[in-house]
Design a protein that fits this description.
alpha+beta
Length: 368
Amino acid sequence: MDHKLVMAFGAFIALVGLGLFIFHRRTVTDHEMELPGVKVKISAPPAIVVFIAGCLIFVSPEIFPALFTKSDPEKSNNDNRKAAAESASSSERKPDVKLVQPTKTTSRIIPVAVPIEMHAAVDNGKAHTQVVQSWATSYVNWKFKAPPSAVWNVDQAISIVESSSSNTISLHWQWADLPENYSSLSLRHTSGDQYAAVFAVPNALEFKGATCSKGGDGKSGSCTATLSLLPGSAFTFRLWKNHTDQDGQWWYASAYQKGADGKDVNTYIGQIKLPKGAVGVDPVSLKNSNTYYGAHVDQCQDVPISNVRFSPPTVNTLVPKPPEAYASFAAAETPEGNKCKLGRETDGAFTVTSRAGNDIFIRVGGPK
Protein backbone atom coordinates (compact mmCIF):
# COMPACT_ATOMS: atom_id res chain seq x y z
CA MET A 1 0.00 0.00 0.00
CA ASP A 2 1.22 3.50 -0.83
CA HIS A 3 2.41 5.17 2.36
CA LYS A 4 1.21 8.57 1.14
CA LEU A 5 -2.40 7.35 0.90
CA VAL A 6 -2.15 5.85 4.39
CA MET A 7 -0.84 9.12 5.80
CA ALA A 8 -3.62 11.10 4.06
CA PHE A 9 -6.27 8.73 5.43
CA GLY A 10 -4.81 9.02 8.94
CA ALA A 11 -4.80 12.81 8.71
CA PHE A 12 -8.48 12.77 7.63
CA ILE A 13 -9.51 10.56 10.58
CA ALA A 14 -7.55 12.73 13.02
CA LEU A 15 -9.25 15.88 11.69
CA VAL A 16 -12.69 14.23 12.04
CA GLY A 17 -11.93 13.29 15.65
CA LEU A 18 -10.68 16.81 16.37
CA GLY A 19 -13.81 18.33 14.82
CA LEU A 20 -16.13 16.09 16.85
CA PHE A 21 -14.28 16.99 20.02
CA ILE A 22 -14.62 20.75 19.35
CA PHE A 23 -18.32 20.30 18.48
CA HIS A 24 -18.93 18.48 21.78
CA ARG A 25 -17.12 21.10 23.87
CA ARG A 26 -19.64 23.81 22.88
CA THR A 27 -22.04 22.34 25.44
CA VAL A 28 -21.64 20.05 28.41
CA THR A 29 -24.30 17.62 27.16
CA ASP A 30 -23.99 14.88 24.62
CA HIS A 31 -25.44 15.46 21.17
CA GLU A 32 -26.90 13.26 18.51
CA MET A 33 -25.94 13.55 14.85
CA GLU A 34 -28.17 12.08 12.18
CA LEU A 35 -26.34 10.23 9.41
CA PRO A 36 -28.15 8.44 6.59
CA GLY A 37 -30.21 5.71 8.27
CA VAL A 38 -28.59 6.01 11.71
CA LYS A 39 -28.32 8.35 14.69
CA VAL A 40 -24.84 8.82 16.23
CA LYS A 41 -24.41 10.01 19.81
CA ILE A 42 -21.39 12.27 20.19
CA SER A 43 -19.44 12.51 23.44
CA ALA A 44 -15.90 13.75 24.30
CA PRO A 45 -14.13 10.43 25.03
CA PRO A 46 -15.02 8.74 21.68
CA ALA A 47 -13.98 11.90 19.80
CA ILE A 48 -10.56 11.79 21.45
CA VAL A 49 -10.22 8.11 20.56
CA VAL A 50 -10.99 8.88 16.91
CA PHE A 51 -8.38 11.68 16.94
CA ILE A 52 -5.69 9.44 18.44
CA ALA A 53 -6.50 6.64 15.99
CA GLY A 54 -6.10 9.04 13.08
CA CYS A 55 -2.73 10.19 14.40
CA LEU A 56 -1.52 6.61 14.75
CA ILE A 57 -2.59 5.81 11.20
CA PHE A 58 -0.77 8.94 9.98
CA VAL A 59 2.58 7.98 11.54
CA SER A 60 2.39 4.22 10.90
CA PRO A 61 4.33 4.36 7.57
CA GLU A 62 7.27 5.95 9.43
CA ILE A 63 7.14 3.39 12.25
CA PHE A 64 6.61 0.34 10.02
CA PRO A 65 8.12 1.27 6.62
CA ALA A 66 8.50 -2.34 5.49
CA LEU A 67 4.69 -2.75 5.45
CA PHE A 68 4.22 0.11 3.01
CA THR A 69 7.23 -0.28 0.64
CA LYS A 70 7.05 -2.29 -2.56
CA SER A 71 9.89 -4.71 -3.10
CA ASP A 72 11.85 -4.19 -6.31
CA PRO A 73 14.01 -7.28 -6.91
CA GLU A 74 15.96 -5.69 -9.76
CA LYS A 75 16.75 -2.58 -7.74
CA SER A 76 17.76 -4.76 -4.78
CA ASN A 77 20.11 -6.79 -6.96
CA ASN A 78 21.60 -3.63 -8.42
CA ASP A 79 22.13 -2.19 -4.95
CA ASN A 80 23.78 -5.41 -3.81
CA ARG A 81 26.06 -5.44 -6.85
CA LYS A 82 26.95 -1.80 -6.27
CA ALA A 83 27.73 -2.44 -2.61
CA ALA A 84 29.89 -5.43 -3.50
CA ALA A 85 31.77 -3.40 -6.11
CA GLU A 86 32.36 -0.57 -3.67
CA SER A 87 33.57 -3.03 -1.04
CA ALA A 88 35.97 -4.65 -3.51
CA SER A 89 37.30 -1.34 -4.75
CA SER A 90 37.83 -0.07 -1.22
CA SER A 91 39.99 -3.08 -0.41
CA GLU A 92 42.17 -2.34 -3.47
CA ARG A 93 42.11 1.44 -3.09
CA LYS A 94 45.48 3.12 -2.79
CA PRO A 95 46.27 4.53 0.62
CA ASP A 96 45.65 8.22 1.14
CA VAL A 97 48.61 10.37 0.19
CA LYS A 98 49.52 12.94 2.86
CA LEU A 99 51.99 15.78 2.46
CA VAL A 100 55.08 15.72 4.66
CA GLN A 101 56.67 19.00 5.73
CA PRO A 102 60.46 18.73 5.26
CA THR A 103 62.96 20.34 7.61
CA LYS A 104 65.94 22.36 6.38
CA THR A 105 69.40 20.81 6.47
CA THR A 106 72.87 22.19 5.83
CA SER A 107 74.16 18.81 4.63
CA ARG A 108 74.45 17.94 0.98
CA ILE A 109 75.03 14.28 0.25
CA ILE A 110 76.31 13.69 -3.28
CA PRO A 111 76.84 10.22 -4.77
CA VAL A 112 80.58 10.10 -5.40
CA ALA A 113 80.00 8.84 -8.96
CA VAL A 114 78.03 11.97 -9.92
CA PRO A 115 80.09 15.06 -10.84
CA ILE A 116 79.21 18.57 -9.72
CA GLU A 117 80.49 19.89 -13.04
CA MET A 118 80.01 18.46 -16.52
CA HIS A 119 83.01 19.05 -18.76
CA ALA A 120 83.48 19.03 -22.54
CA ALA A 121 80.50 21.25 -23.27
CA VAL A 122 81.24 23.28 -26.43
CA ASP A 123 80.25 26.86 -27.20
CA ASN A 124 81.47 28.49 -30.43
CA GLY A 125 84.12 25.84 -30.82
CA LYS A 126 85.56 26.38 -27.33
CA ALA A 127 85.27 23.85 -24.57
CA HIS A 128 84.06 25.11 -21.22
CA THR A 129 82.72 23.78 -17.96
CA GLN A 130 78.95 23.47 -17.63
CA VAL A 131 77.70 23.73 -14.04
CA VAL A 132 74.72 21.64 -12.96
CA GLN A 133 71.71 23.01 -11.07
CA SER A 134 72.58 23.50 -7.39
CA TRP A 135 70.53 22.27 -4.42
CA ALA A 136 67.76 20.72 -6.53
CA THR A 137 67.20 17.80 -4.18
CA SER A 138 65.17 16.40 -1.31
CA TYR A 139 65.92 13.68 1.26
CA VAL A 140 64.02 11.18 3.39
CA ASN A 141 65.55 9.68 6.55
CA TRP A 142 64.68 6.26 7.96
CA LYS A 143 64.75 4.85 11.49
CA PHE A 144 64.46 1.47 13.24
CA LYS A 145 62.53 0.74 16.40
CA ALA A 146 65.27 -1.66 17.46
CA PRO A 147 68.29 -1.34 15.14
CA PRO A 148 70.25 -4.59 14.66
CA SER A 149 73.73 -4.57 16.15
CA ALA A 150 75.26 -5.78 12.87
CA VAL A 151 73.81 -5.06 9.41
CA TRP A 152 75.22 -7.23 6.63
CA ASN A 153 72.42 -6.70 4.10
CA VAL A 154 70.12 -3.87 2.99
CA ASP A 155 67.21 -4.22 0.54
CA GLN A 156 64.94 -1.42 -0.67
CA ALA A 157 62.11 -1.41 -3.21
CA ILE A 158 61.80 1.75 -5.35
CA SER A 159 59.24 2.73 -8.00
CA ILE A 160 59.74 5.45 -10.59
CA VAL A 161 56.41 7.27 -10.97
CA GLU A 162 57.66 9.98 -13.34
CA SER A 163 61.14 9.98 -14.86
CA SER A 164 63.58 12.71 -15.79
CA SER A 165 66.73 12.03 -17.78
CA SER A 166 68.79 14.26 -15.48
CA ASN A 167 67.70 12.96 -12.08
CA THR A 168 69.61 10.61 -9.81
CA ILE A 169 67.70 8.38 -7.36
CA SER A 170 69.85 7.20 -4.47
CA LEU A 171 70.04 5.07 -1.36
CA HIS A 172 72.73 6.44 0.99
CA TRP A 173 74.37 4.95 4.08
CA GLN A 174 77.44 5.18 6.29
CA TRP A 175 79.63 2.29 7.37
CA ALA A 176 79.40 1.34 11.03
CA ASP A 177 83.11 1.88 11.79
CA LEU A 178 83.86 4.44 9.07
CA PRO A 179 81.88 7.52 10.11
CA GLU A 180 81.33 10.40 7.68
CA ASN A 181 81.91 8.10 4.72
CA TYR A 182 78.63 8.05 2.83
CA SER A 183 78.34 5.43 0.12
CA SER A 184 75.41 4.97 -2.25
CA LEU A 185 73.44 2.88 -4.68
CA SER A 186 72.05 5.17 -7.38
CA LEU A 187 69.97 5.05 -10.53
CA ARG A 188 70.21 7.51 -13.43
CA HIS A 189 67.97 7.52 -16.48
CA THR A 190 69.98 7.33 -19.71
CA SER A 191 67.50 6.76 -22.56
CA GLY A 192 64.18 5.02 -23.20
CA ASP A 193 63.79 2.30 -20.58
CA GLN A 194 67.54 2.20 -19.90
CA TYR A 195 69.00 3.25 -16.56
CA ALA A 196 72.53 3.26 -15.16
CA ALA A 197 72.72 1.57 -11.75
CA VAL A 198 75.78 2.75 -9.81
CA PHE A 199 77.43 1.37 -6.66
CA ALA A 200 79.75 4.11 -5.36
CA VAL A 201 82.02 4.39 -2.30
CA PRO A 202 84.44 7.13 -1.15
CA ASN A 203 87.38 4.85 -0.40
CA ALA A 204 87.63 1.84 -2.72
CA LEU A 205 90.59 -0.57 -2.53
CA GLU A 206 89.71 -3.08 -5.26
CA PHE A 207 86.87 -3.94 -7.67
CA LYS A 208 85.23 -6.95 -9.23
CA GLY A 209 83.13 -6.15 -12.27
CA ALA A 210 83.55 -5.23 -15.91
CA THR A 211 82.45 -1.63 -15.46
CA CYS A 212 84.25 -0.58 -12.26
CA SER A 213 86.76 2.23 -11.97
CA LYS A 214 88.54 4.62 -9.63
CA GLY A 215 87.33 8.17 -9.24
CA GLY A 216 89.32 11.23 -10.23
CA ASP A 217 90.56 11.68 -6.67
CA GLY A 218 92.23 8.26 -6.72
CA LYS A 219 90.32 7.12 -3.63
CA SER A 220 86.65 6.89 -4.52
CA GLY A 221 85.38 4.25 -6.88
CA SER A 222 82.23 2.92 -8.48
CA CYS A 223 80.75 0.04 -10.46
CA THR A 224 78.01 0.57 -13.06
CA ALA A 225 75.48 -1.71 -14.76
CA THR A 226 72.66 -1.10 -17.25
CA LEU A 227 69.14 -1.74 -15.98
CA SER A 228 66.08 -1.94 -18.24
CA LEU A 229 63.09 -0.55 -16.39
CA LEU A 230 59.64 0.40 -17.61
CA PRO A 231 57.97 3.55 -16.19
CA GLY A 232 55.86 2.75 -13.14
CA SER A 233 57.58 -0.58 -12.49
CA ALA A 234 59.51 -1.30 -9.32
CA PHE A 235 63.01 -2.56 -8.68
CA THR A 236 64.93 -3.41 -5.52
CA PHE A 237 68.42 -2.31 -4.56
CA ARG A 238 70.40 -5.00 -2.72
CA LEU A 239 73.60 -4.47 -0.75
CA TRP A 240 75.30 -7.58 0.64
CA LYS A 241 78.38 -8.18 2.79
CA ASN A 242 80.75 -10.61 1.10
CA HIS A 243 84.04 -12.20 2.17
CA THR A 244 86.81 -10.54 4.19
CA ASP A 245 90.41 -10.23 3.03
CA GLN A 246 93.48 -9.59 5.17
CA ASP A 247 93.38 -5.90 4.29
CA GLY A 248 89.71 -5.19 3.64
CA GLN A 249 86.03 -6.08 3.40
CA TRP A 250 84.19 -6.90 0.15
CA TRP A 251 80.63 -5.69 -0.48
CA TYR A 252 78.34 -6.84 -3.30
CA ALA A 253 75.61 -4.73 -4.98
CA SER A 254 72.79 -5.63 -7.37
CA ALA A 255 69.35 -4.51 -8.52
CA TYR A 256 66.53 -6.92 -9.21
CA GLN A 257 62.95 -6.75 -10.44
CA LYS A 258 60.10 -9.09 -11.32
CA GLY A 259 60.25 -10.63 -14.78
CA ALA A 260 57.30 -11.46 -17.03
CA ASP A 261 57.15 -14.93 -15.46
CA GLY A 262 56.97 -13.47 -11.94
CA LYS A 263 60.50 -14.55 -11.05
CA ASP A 264 63.22 -12.19 -9.85
CA VAL A 265 65.58 -10.91 -12.56
CA ASN A 266 68.87 -9.93 -10.95
CA THR A 267 71.23 -7.33 -12.43
CA TYR A 268 74.74 -7.59 -11.01
CA ILE A 269 76.30 -4.14 -10.47
CA GLY A 270 79.65 -5.06 -8.97
CA GLN A 271 81.78 -5.74 -5.90
CA ILE A 272 84.04 -3.28 -4.10
CA LYS A 273 86.59 -3.88 -1.37
CA LEU A 274 86.71 -1.26 1.38
CA PRO A 275 88.95 -0.83 4.43
CA LYS A 276 88.34 -3.23 7.30
CA GLY A 277 86.30 -0.62 9.13
CA ALA A 278 83.44 -1.26 6.72
CA VAL A 279 82.30 -4.33 8.65
CA GLY A 280 78.64 -3.36 8.50
CA VAL A 281 76.13 -0.68 7.60
CA ASP A 282 75.07 1.87 10.21
CA PRO A 283 71.25 1.36 10.12
CA VAL A 284 70.39 4.81 11.48
CA SER A 285 72.31 6.45 8.60
CA LEU A 286 70.00 5.09 5.85
CA LYS A 287 68.41 7.79 3.71
CA ASN A 288 67.14 8.37 0.18
CA SER A 289 67.36 11.28 -2.19
CA ASN A 290 65.89 12.40 -5.49
CA THR A 291 68.21 14.94 -7.11
CA TYR A 292 68.28 16.87 -10.37
CA TYR A 293 71.84 16.83 -11.71
CA GLY A 294 71.06 18.35 -15.10
CA ALA A 295 72.28 21.56 -16.71
CA HIS A 296 71.62 24.83 -14.93
CA VAL A 297 68.28 26.47 -15.79
CA ASP A 298 67.38 30.16 -15.79
CA GLN A 299 64.36 29.64 -13.54
CA CYS A 300 64.05 26.86 -10.97
CA GLN A 301 60.47 26.12 -12.08
CA ASP A 302 61.96 24.83 -15.36
CA VAL A 303 63.65 21.86 -13.68
CA PRO A 304 62.06 18.74 -15.25
CA ILE A 305 59.77 16.68 -13.01
CA SER A 306 60.93 13.47 -11.36
CA ASN A 307 58.66 11.61 -8.93
CA VAL A 308 59.86 8.52 -7.05
CA ARG A 309 58.25 6.20 -4.51
CA PHE A 310 60.53 4.79 -1.81
CA SER A 311 59.47 1.81 0.30
CA PRO A 312 61.08 1.43 3.75
CA PRO A 313 64.44 -0.38 3.64
CA THR A 314 64.76 -3.82 5.22
CA VAL A 315 67.94 -5.31 6.71
CA ASN A 316 69.47 -8.76 7.08
CA THR A 317 67.16 -10.73 4.77
CA LEU A 318 68.08 -14.37 4.26
CA VAL A 319 65.40 -15.95 2.04
CA PRO A 320 63.07 -17.67 2.86
CA LYS A 321 63.23 -16.05 6.29
CA PRO A 322 61.76 -12.55 6.74
CA PRO A 323 64.03 -9.52 7.27
CA GLU A 324 65.49 -9.05 10.71
CA ALA A 325 64.19 -5.47 10.86
CA TYR A 326 62.03 -3.04 8.89
CA ALA A 327 62.72 0.68 8.73
CA SER A 328 60.07 3.36 9.21
CA PHE A 329 59.83 6.98 8.15
CA ALA A 330 61.82 9.36 10.36
CA ALA A 331 61.92 12.77 8.65
CA ALA A 332 62.10 14.60 5.34
CA GLU A 333 64.77 17.21 4.57
CA THR A 334 65.53 19.80 1.94
CA PRO A 335 68.87 21.65 1.83
CA GLU A 336 68.96 25.24 3.01
CA GLY A 337 70.63 26.10 -0.28
CA ASN A 338 67.40 25.33 -2.15
CA LYS A 339 66.06 28.87 -2.60
CA CYS A 340 63.28 27.99 -5.07
CA LYS A 341 60.23 29.77 -3.62
CA LEU A 342 58.49 31.62 -6.46
CA GLY A 343 59.86 29.63 -9.39
CA ARG A 344 61.97 32.48 -10.78
CA GLU A 345 65.05 31.80 -8.65
CA THR A 346 68.13 30.43 -10.41
CA ASP A 347 69.12 27.71 -7.92
CA GLY A 348 67.25 24.78 -6.43
CA ALA A 349 63.91 23.30 -7.49
CA PHE A 350 60.39 22.88 -6.19
CA THR A 351 60.18 19.72 -4.09
CA VAL A 352 57.17 17.90 -2.63
CA THR A 353 57.43 15.05 -0.13
CA SER A 354 54.32 12.98 0.59
CA ARG A 355 53.46 9.77 2.40
CA ALA A 356 51.22 6.88 1.37
CA GLY A 357 51.03 4.22 4.06
CA ASN A 358 54.65 3.35 4.88
CA ASP A 359 56.00 4.57 1.53
CA ILE A 360 57.42 8.02 0.81
CA PHE A 361 57.13 9.96 -2.46
CA ILE A 362 59.75 12.57 -3.39
CA ARG A 363 58.83 14.86 -6.27
CA VAL A 364 61.47 17.24 -7.63
CA GLY A 365 61.04 19.84 -10.37
CA GLY A 366 58.26 21.45 -12.34
CA PRO A 367 56.12 24.47 -11.43
CA LYS A 368 54.71 24.76 -7.93
